[in-house]
Amino acid sequence: MHPNRVFHWTDEQEMLAFVAQVSFATICVDGPAVVHAPLVLAGRDRLLFHVSRSNPAAAKLENARAIASVMGPDFYVSPDWYGTPDQVPTWNYLVVEAEGPLRPLDEVELAALLDRLSADHEERLTPKMPWTRGKMTPGRFEAMLKAIIGYELTIEALRGTRKLGQNKKAEERESVADALAALGRDDHAALMQPSPAGGRGLGEGNGLSAGSKPVQPACTSRPHPSPLSRAGEGA
Questions:
Q1: DSSP state, 159?
Q2: Residue 146's CB: how many other CB atoms inside 10 A?
Q3: Is the model's pLDDT at 135 over the cut of 60?
Q4: What residue spans of the chain are helical by DSSP H?
């Protein structure tokens, strides 16, 4: 997480909504081991995911402590876009980390996870008729289930960074937004806009729109115990 507190994301509900919307994470455990997996948010304190049983990292996940890093939009900012002198290049981004212990799912829980995962994402394809495993040949789903392992991450710490130029003047952020819009990057431009009078603050909300395409980073954080907190602490 970014050490500058001005970029800390402190709204737990917004961070969880962001995780649910992106629904894909880089999951890191000691070893080191890293896996990339789709997520399901189960309440406010649990994440569910699955990996291939043949993944070399899978053996290191059972009963380990992990960090799931969920990345949203990110983009380069040119110093020329601020319209003021003595600026330097930077990179803006949104990210949430969920940390906690892992527990393997049993077969019933794993099947339920896959049903929930497909249902969530089939719903996003409306008006398409949703796919369900009822369309599969009997026994085929159960046979394929043996090739994967499911896990539950209990969220004991939730940290977020929303680095969107909060340390810049309003006119500088507006100038960057105009430059991004001129490049056709309207989603990024909207994130940089200061809020209208009486509206939400810069970068409020989960930071995603229907057209956003989150990209997952390599994991560089190492797990460390910390209590669940609404404050995004820098790492």
A1: E
A2: 10
A3: yes
A4: 12-22, 107-123, 140-145, 170-182, 186-192
User: Distance between alpha carbon 87 and the CA centroid of its chain, in Å?
Assistant: 29
């070399």: which residue's tokens?
56
- Which structure tokens are listed for 229? 């907190």
- 8 A C-beta contact, residue 175 and residue 83: yes
Helices (H) and strands (E) in the chain, counts: 5, 8
A 10 A CB-CB count for 136 gives 13
Q: Which residues contact 157 (CB under 8 A, 6 or more apart)?
A: 97, 98, 99, 100, 225, 226, 227, 228, 229
Residue 16 above 60 pLDDT?
Answer: yes
Q: What pLDDT score does 10 carry?
A: 87
Residue type, position 176, single letter: V
Lowest mean pLDDT among 10-14, 142-146, 211-215: 211-215
The DSSP call for residue 61 is: T
Residue 136 makes CB contacts below 8 A (sequence gap 6+) with none
- Chain mean position to CA 220: 15
Q: How far apart are the first and last CA of the chain?
A: 5
| Residue 195 pLDDT level (bands cut at 50, 70, 90) | low
What is the pLDDT averaged over residues 162-174?
94
